[in-house]
Amino acid sequence: MMILAENEGFFSQLMGICQKLSEGFGATLLIFFLTLLFALPLGLVIAAGRMSKFKPLSTLVKLYISIVRGTPLMLQLLVVMFGPFYLFGMKISQDYRFYAVIIGFSLNYAAYFAEIYRSGIQAVPVGQYEACEILGYSRAQRFFKVVFPQMVKNIIPSVTNEVITLVKDTSLAFAIAYTEMFTVAKQVAAAQATIMPLFVAGLFYYVFNFVVAFVMELLEKKMNYFR
Amino acid sequence: MKLLEVKNVRKSFDDLEVLKDISLDVSEGQVVSILGPSGSGKSTFLRCLSMLETVDGGSISYCGKPAVTDAKYVGKAALKEIKSYFSLVFQSFNLFPHYTVMKNICDAPVHVMKRDKEEVRKDGEVLLKKMGLDSKADHYPYQLSGGQQQRVAIARALNMKPKMLFFDEPTSALDPELTAEILKVLKELAEEKMTMVIVTHEIAFARSISDHVVFMDGGVIVEQGAPADVIDNPSNDRTRAFLKKLEQ
Ligand SMILES: Nc1ncnc2c1ncn2[C@@H]1O[C@H](COP(=O)(O)OP(=O)(O)OP(=O)(O)O)[C@@H](O)[C@H]1O
Ligand SMILES: [Mg+2]
Fold it and tell me: Could you tell me which chain B residue has the CA closest to the CA of A126?
């Protein structure tokens, strides 16, 4: 009897934790998908700037990338969050916290994606460009018809790495007190004086990444129709 | 009619002068072979003719229309028109790996030349049949042998309906058996009076297919003429040395 009751207590506690965490998990998912939504295309723009023949632009973009890659994401989030106030004296609204998270993550991840795109583009053989030239393709046709599909195939493994890192990085939003799953886990752990919420959070991240890896593997297989 | 007129073309890479004053005429229906040792500038010459490289001096015109006059290129629109007069087949094929054979052949005619899709497809089918590749229309390049890939590349070039074709060592990436396949295709094209300029190391083939043979060395044409003269009775020492070396 005693054992059963204790177990019941354990399960109800676990269920409680899961429920609380899944509220935070919504925020985690939102950061994840919005970051990808903005960073993936923005990375392409940044890559274009990085590879521009116009030297001032490519130098500027190179500097941007090196700053983003050379400083902690957590610090960047703080700058995006509090920069407007300290630098320009702007009043920060409550809503801005969420925007700051998305802006910070997107700007950061776009820089990484840009470098991945660049390597993927550079891996397309010169012969492909020359064939396009001989066939009379325009620059736009060359990019969208020939370079882009080959780039996508080239970069899938690197993008997978980056996306998996993003899943874990969403927890950094706690730095500017944006409540996502990890923040919730810490709060619950402190309130109930148990480490269990952190284990459960870890499991959530793990399962999430398991799904990410699965989806990316499907994509990789889909791109295997050519070599 | 002269399809191609090249006068005094020069080309340097930094300090290295690769083409020194090259002149050459190609008439309609003519097959010209270019021979010469490695590094003599044969590829560079073809690349200049096909506008993959810009020349530093000299003039090039196609069908009487100047493309370059004393190293000055004509405007974009005129150049685009002129570029449609020729096509180039690469040593390494350079097929689009993510397109099927049929799409490789039909994409540019449809999306660059804006020709009717159905018509282009029909032409593509005829070309594939001619290349002995009708069963491969839906394959991807990696599923083909080197010789088959090169035949697709030739079909791709032909489907642009060029007035002349350039070939840069079209068989150098192939083993002897596959080389024979490609040479046979070129022979057929020559019989159909396709105008061609072919850089090749296949001397016997050059002798049998060409109307005119050019021997290049050190960025200049050291000897040219009928194949019987240049290949069988070379008057220049360098030509002789080169041919002798090949015989061994
Ligand atoms: N893009 C380039 N930049 C610098 N040098 C080049 C470039 N392309 C060719 N060269 C040089 O120009 C010279 C002629 O090269 P090219 O490729 O035209 O020779 P080739 O006659 O085709 O030789 P092969 O029979 O080996 O193909 C070589 O010395 C080569 O190193
Ligand atoms: Mg060459």
Answer: B94
Which CA distances in Å does B188 have to B184, B185, B194, B195, B209?
Answer: 6, 5, 9, 12, 10
Range of the domain at A159: 26-223
Ligand 1 pocket residue status of B38, Cβ below 6 Å: yes
What residue owns the CA closest to ligand 1's atom 1? Answer: B13
What is the reported pTM? 0.91
Q: How far apart are CA A160 and CA B43, in angstroms?
A: 41
A34 domain residue, yes or no? yes
User: How many domains does chain A fold into?
Assistant: 1
Place of tokens 């890659």: A69
Listed by start position, the domains of chain B span 96-161
H-only helix segments in chain B? 42-49, 76-83, 101-111, 117-130, 146-158, 176-191, 203-209, 227, 237-247
pLDDT averaged over 10-residue windows placed end to end, chain B, 248 residues: 94 95 95 95 96 96 95 94 96 96 97 96 95 94 95 96 96 89 92 96 91 94 92 86 81
The answer as to whether A199 is a domain residue is: yes
| Residue A146 near chain B (CB below 8 Å) | yes
Q: Does residue A38 belong to any structural domain of this protein?
A: yes
> What is the domain-level CATH number for residue A183?
1.10.3720.10
Instruction: Say whether A136 and B80 touch across the interface (CB within 8 A).
Output: yes
Report the atom number in ligand 1 closest to the C-alpha of B44.
18
Spatial distance between the Cα atoms of A197 and A199, rounded to a whole number of angstroms: 5
Torsional sign, CA B129, B135, B138, B142: negative
- A63 token code pair: 């500097």
